Amino acid sequence: MFRRNVPGMWEEMERMQRDMNRLFRSSRGSRLHAAPSFPAMNIWASDEGQLITAEIPGVEPDDLDISVTGEILTLSGTRKAEHFGDEVRYHRQERGYGRFKRSIQLPYPVQVDKIEASFKNGVLKVSLPRAEEDKPKKITVKSA
After folding, report:
1. Which of 29, 52, 91, 104: disulfide with 126, CB 3.0–4.6 Å?
2. Spatial CB neighbours of 110, under 8 Å, sequence gap ≥ 6
3. Is the full-model pTM beyond 0.70?
4. Contact, 100 vs 36, CB < 8 A?
């Protein structure tokens, strides 16, 4: 008499599917966290203001433009191509060069006249104080 082990076969198929899903999730994970465009930026915000950092190695401070219009911060600039002489040719080129521009929505209005920026070791830091009229106000409740 021929007997098929159908439940065991399906259990094995489900186990294989779970293993494949786990494999694809782990390989895709590093790409999901990659920055969507250049430069990579982080934004921290508090009730007092925001701090933005941007990784821009190879860019000179004089080649950067930072502007704020409304609640949009725009960072643009140029990263110049490296040149090591006519006798040298690329074997591999992964770092891009040329003009870049990135705009991001800020979480709230800022005091444009008090924005400060500094640049060290290829990292730009931009401090954006929150606009006074937009800061949360504490309201005192008086007893009657």
Report:
1. 52
2. 49, 50, 68, 71, 128, 129, 130, 131
3. no
4. no
The whole-angstrom separation of Cα 11 and Cα 99 is 55
Per residue in 19-70, pLDDT (tens digit) is 888 877 766 554 444 445 789 899 999 989 999 999 999 899 999 999 999 8
Q: Please tell me whether the peptide bond between 7 and the residue prior to it is cis, using omega within 30 degrees of 0.
A: no
Residues 69, 74: Cα–Cα separation, whole Å: 8
How far apart, in whole angstroms, are the C-alpha atoms of residue 39 and residue 59?
11
Q: How confident is the model at residue 86 (pLDDT cuts 50, 70, 90)?
A: confident
Q: How is the beta sheet containing 64-69 ordered, strand by strand? A: 64-69, 72-79, 98-105
CA pair distance 140, 38, nearest whole angstrom:
46
Cα–Cα distance, 113 to 102 (Å, whole number)? 21
Q: Which of 104, 95, 45 minimizes the C-alpha distance to 74?
A: 104
Six-digit token pair at 93? Answer: 């080129």
